[in-house]
Every structure is written in C-alpha cells, then in structure tokens.
Amino acid sequence: MADYFEIDFLAVETKKSGDAIPLRYEAGGRTYIHVVDGGFQETGEKIIEHVKQHYGNPSAVDHVVVTHPDGDHTVGLRQVLEEFEVRALWMLRPWLYAAEIIDRFTNFTSVENLKRRLRELYPNLVALEEIANRKGIPILEPFSGSQIGQFRVLGPNRSTYLDLIVISEKTPEHTGEESSGAQVSLAETVKRMVAKVVNTIRAAWGDEIFSDEETSAENEMSVVQYANICDQKILLTGDAGRRALSEAADYALLIGVSLPGFHRVQIPHHGSRRNVSTEVLDRLFGPRLASKLAEGSETFTAICSSAKEDEDHPRKAVVRAFYHRGAKVIATEGQSIRTQKNAPAREGWVAVPSYPYPEEQEE
After folding, report:
1. Which residues, listed in sequence order, are joined to residue 339 by a DSSP beta bridge?
2. Is the pLDDT of residue 180 over 50?
C-alpha cells in the first residue's frame, strides 16, 4: 500500500477542553500507531475503542507521547498503557533532573528531598511511570531532535526544560518550604477570575489582539512534533506557548524544514490567546493575507481540540488569526475529527464544516 496517514482528534467533552490524538500512518512500507496525549479518565476508554475499531484491532501501540504534565492530557493514558503492549512511552519527568537544578533552589539542599517533592507535584506523570515500570515499557526523553517514528521532536530542548521546571508555579521555589503543597495566592486567584471576564469588540479583517499574559511553564514544556508524510507537513503542538513555538521554529530551520508553511496543524492549547502572537504565527504559517480565501481554496488545515461546554476555548482572536493566514479552521466541539491523506476508507466519517470566522475578538 502507498504511504498514508490518518490523525484523529477525539472529542474530549467536559467543561474543560483536553487533547486525545491517536494516529496511524504508513511510511516506507512500515505501519505505525501512535497516541499523543489521553485527555481525562473517561477519555482513555474512548482511545482504546477507537484504536481497536479503526486501526485494525492491534495488540500493540508503537509510541505513546505525553506532551506535558497537565491532567487534561495525561490521565486517560493510564488506561492506554494498561490495555496495549506499548513499545515506547515518551515522557519528561522533572524529578530525573533534580541533581542538575538543585543549586537553583534556595530551600533545598538534598537531591533526594527535591526529587521526592517534584514527584509529589507531578502525580499524573508518576502514575504513568509506575504503570510503565510494572509492564516493562521503556520511557524515553522527547527532547529536540528525538525521532518518534516518522515524527521529529522540535522542542523542548533540554536547557529550556530545566529552566521551566525551576520557574514553574508548581515548584518548591514558589511554595517556600519543602513540605507544603503548591498554593495559589489570593492575587493570582483574583487575576484568574478577572481573566475569565473578557469583552469582545468588532474587528476588521486582519486585526489581531492577543493576551499580554504568558501561558504556564507546564504548557511551555509541551513536546512539539513534526513529520512530513505524503508530502504533507504535519505539526502537533500540545499546549505549547510562544516560547516553545519560537524555539520549535528555530530548530525546524536548523534541520532544514522550510518556514513558513505546514499543511496539517494542531492549534495550540485549545485556542488560547496566551499561547500565540502575530510574530510567532507569521514565522510558522506566513503573514496575514489581504482578504479571506474562498471556501475550498484554503492552504492548510488547523484543528482545535475544544469542548463544546468550554466557554473559554477557542478564543475568537486565535480562530481569526489562523484564517488570516489561509487556514481552514475546524474544531472538535462534540465531534471527533480525522485528517488524512491516502488513508483507508472509513464508513460514516464525513467532512467537517469550517469553524465560523469571528467578526469580533477579545479586547
């Protein structure tokens, strides 16, 4: 059979969006099955059923990739690891680097204590590690340059990842003591509540307003993956923010990937406007067009994993920005989406209509 790929963005339907992306492809005569992130607990069974039904009822999965430690990406993977023979789990574990970063903490002198505290702060990763160790699944580090099947990791690099562990609000540096749990200050709580109240304004074509706030350190830890299959350039971003996307662009150029220009793209962080900027989007996808392309003439597809009940995602400014660069934007919103080329026919799966272009955006 000729090379093909099918990437499925499964609907993660709670009041908060999540990511669960199984994919299958054939390249050079070999078929691969990956799972990238696993949504919440109830999503795990959905992934298992999907892989069995649509990917030939396999007993094994080649690669499972944890993009970053947030629960909406990790928890469902516990069931996936238990169900399948997983040949490799790609996951970054902060506690493995305790000895390298302990000098950057003022309240820790023992590497073992720091390691123990980091394990307490990232329980979703610990749970996956325990399953992998019990089942003999190798755990590999997805730093820049790693090859996961046909996918190349564009980020994070090791140095950036260590920096992010240290600056994360979850780390002991911010809690002030070895034994306390991570706490959110009253000021931060008020800030988050205010952030949810966002006014919108009418906007002309091409206008873009993004948040001045940065996304979390955990989101910036996201593993960004790139592949070129069937002459289609694919970019999977997790919840990557501006820093992660900029570094991914730098590495892409270093390995000879021409920018701008991709064909199938995951919109970062369910369409949050804290994750992108005009400059980053220009680098990856090109400058804003003079006018909206006619339906059917879009130059690439941008897929957003966003729950129907999630009022905060996707942000209108982000949807607009992808349209400004020639994308067809589609969102899960209660439905699972397949993007493919040359893939086996799948009964009952039809084309998904474009997400409407917003005529307004957040102030």
Report:
1. 7
2. no
**Interval 65-118: pLDDT, tens:** 999 999 999 999 999 999 999 999 999 999 999 999 999 998 999 999 999 999
Q: Which fold has domain 4-362?
A: Metallo-beta-lactamase; Chain A (3.60.15)
Interacting residues of 229 by C-beta distance below 8 A, sequence separation 6+: 3, 4, 5, 25, 27, 150, 341
| Pairwise CA distance, residues 101 & 148, whole Å | 27
pLDDT value for 170: 82
Lowest pLDDT segment from 65-79, 164-178, 236-250, 267-281: 164-178
Q: Could you tell me if 271 and 362 are in contact, meaning their C-beta atoms sit under 8 angstroms apart?
A: no
Percent of the chain with pLDDT strictly greater than 90: 84
162 close to 100: Cβ distance less than 8 angstroms: yes
Q: What region, left, alpha or beta, does residue 339 occupy, with left being phi > 0 and alpha being psi -120 to 50 degrees?
A: beta
The torsion defined by the Cα of 294, 298, 301 and 302, in degrees rounded to 10, comes to -60
In whole angstroms, what is the distance from residue 304 CA to residue 15 CA? Answer: 15
Please check whether residue 152 is in contact with residue 255, taking contact to mean a CB–CB distance below 8 angstroms.
yes
Whether this prediction's pTM lies above 0.90 is answered by yes
Residue 202 tokens, joined: 């009418």
Token couple for 195: 């952030």
Using alpha carbons, select from 312, 309, 307, 294 the residue that is nearest to residue 354: 294
CA–CA separation, 270 and 197 (whole Å): 18
> What is the predicted pLDDT for the residue at 311?
85
Kindly write down the DSSP assignment for every residue of 330-348, as one continuous string: EE-TTS-EEEEESPPP-TT
User: What ranges do the domains of the chain cover?
Assistant: 4-362
Coil, strand or helix at 87: coil
Q: What angle do CA 276, 277, 283 make, to 5 degrees?
A: 95
